[in-house]
């Protein structure tokens, strides 16, 4: 299955905020988690993730800090802010409304082509 670019983009912010709500993380780990959570259906690239993280940081939804790892390699860790948690709660309410609406619409649909 191929998800449309618009749908992937719309889900990106709540997905990243939800991942960071579970704890701070860094780029590669976020990409890996997105892939795992989607069962491989969402295969984001660094070119998609980092602009999103930078935008979320500009908006005050996430903060970042450089840390050295075991091998003395530096990584930039991202963490959700209180403002980001509020945004995640709002996005969750909006997505729940969309999902409930679609479920209702699809459940009452009796078109034979949609039954397959």
Describe this entry's structure for a reader.
By secondary structure, this protein is α+β, with helices and mostly antiparallel strands. Helices cover 61% and strands 14% of the residues. The protein has a single domain, classed as Orthogonal Bundle (Arc Repressor Mutant, subunit A). A hairpin with a 5-residue loop joins strand 2 and strand 3 (74-80). Helix 1 packs across helix 4 (82-107). It is built from 5 helices and 3 strands; from the N terminus they run αβααββαα. A 3-stranded antiparallel sheet has the order 1-3-2. One of its GO terms (molecular function) is DNA binding. This is DNA-binding PadR family transcriptional regulator. It holds the Pfam family PadR.
How many strands, which pairing sense, and closed or not: the largest β-sheet?
Answer: 3 strands, antiparallel
Strands side by side in the biggest sheet: 1-3-2
Radius of gyration: 17 Å
Q: Which residue ranges are poorly predicted, with pLDDT under 50 across at least 5 consecutive positions?
A: none
**CATH class descriptor name:** Mainly Alpha
Q: State the end-to-end distance.
A: 16 Å
Global outline: elongated
State the helicity in percent bands.
55-70%
Strand pairing plus helix content: what structural class? Answer: alpha+beta
Order of H and E elements: HEHHEEHH
- Report the CATH topology name: Arc Repressor Mutant, subunit A
Could you tell me the strand content as a percent range? 5-15%
- How much is the average pLDDT? 92
Any guess at the CATH architecture?
A: Orthogonal Bundle
Number of helices: 5
Number of beta-strand segments: 3
Number of domains: 1
The CATH homologous superfamily is termed: Winged helix-like DNA-binding domain superfamily/Winged helix DNA-binding domain
InterPro entries: Metal_resp_DNA-bind_regulator, Tscrpt_reg_PadR_N, WH-like_DNA-bd_sf, WH_DNA-bd_sf
Protein name: DNA-binding PadR family transcriptional regulator
Domain Transcription regulator PadR N-terminal: 16-90
GO molecular function, one term: DNA binding
């Amino acid at each position: 299955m191929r998800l449309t670019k618009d749908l992937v983009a719309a889900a990106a912010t709540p997905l990243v905020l939800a991942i960071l709500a579970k704890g701070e993380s860094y780029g590669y780990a976020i990409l890996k988690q997105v892939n795992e959570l989607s069962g491989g259906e969402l295969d984001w690239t660094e070119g998609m993730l980092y602009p999103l993280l930078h935008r979320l940081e500009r908006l005050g939804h996430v903060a970042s800090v450089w840390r050295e790892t075991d091998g003395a390699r530096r990584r930039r860790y991202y963490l959700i802010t209180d403002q980001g948690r509020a945004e995640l709660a709002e996005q969750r309410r909006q997505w729940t409304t969309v999902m409930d609406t679609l479920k209702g619409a699809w459940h009452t649909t009796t078109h034979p082509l949609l039954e397959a």
